[in-house]
Amino acid sequence: MKIILASTSVYRRELLGRLGLEFECLAPEVDESMFSELPLAPADLASRLAQEKARAVAANRPEAIVIGADQVVELAGKTLGKPGDQEKARQQLRMLAGKTHCLHTAVTVWMAGAEYSLINETRLRMRPLDDGEIYRYVTLDDPIHCAGSYMVERAGISLFDEVETSDFTSITGLPLLGLSGVLRSLGVAIP
Asked: What is the pLDDT of residues 8-39, one digit of tens each?
């Protein structure tokens, strides 16, 4: 059966590629801003966005297994979205510096009208940062399209003191431990 990753993320593509599967990537046509206005808890928002991305691609490719994923950063019960520009990224990093926050990574696998969803929660403690460090980091990685304004798969890992998770791959966008289990249960051969 054909597998489609409902994402244009290079990092998600690389992660799914680790499983040795043949798949294609398609951009989901989902207006994420529409969902950020809904009164959803951060984890529920991540799950809803993953679900909507999978559904959007599955609507045009019903014969395939479709994988949708999304991440939402939560600080003190509030959602931090993608900053969109470098100034907002610096503002987000100032808020996160010296604090622990949660990264909710959700996945929905769609197959033949059925959906299988999972979510991984990662707790990250960002070390205290001064404005010089924040400026240098944002200039280096330009994390304007990343929830929380950091990229742990790049220099962003240096911003943290501690990371607690049951699946380290979830931090970069796709929890492979849980996803592998779902795909195997659907009959996909994974080594």
From this structure: 999 999 999 999 999 999 999 998 878 877 88
The pTM assigned to this predicted structure is 0.94
**Rounded to 5 degrees, what are φ and ψ at 134?**
-65, -45
Instruction: Kindly state the DSSP code that residue 185 receives in the 8-state scheme.
Output: H
Q: Report residue 101 as tokens.
A: 């926050």
Burial class (CB in 10 A: 0-12, 13-18, 19+), 60: exposed
Active centre residues (catalytic)? 70
Cα 136 to the chain's mean position, in Å? 24
Dig out the tokens for 79 from the structure. 């959602």
Tens of pLDDT, residue by residue over 120-178, are 999 999 999 999 999 999 999 999 999 999 999 999 999 999 999 999 999 999 999 99
Residue 191 lies in a domain: no
CATH label of the domain that carries residue 11: 3.90.950.10
Helix (H) or strand (E) holding 79: strand 78-80
In a domain, 25, yes or no: yes
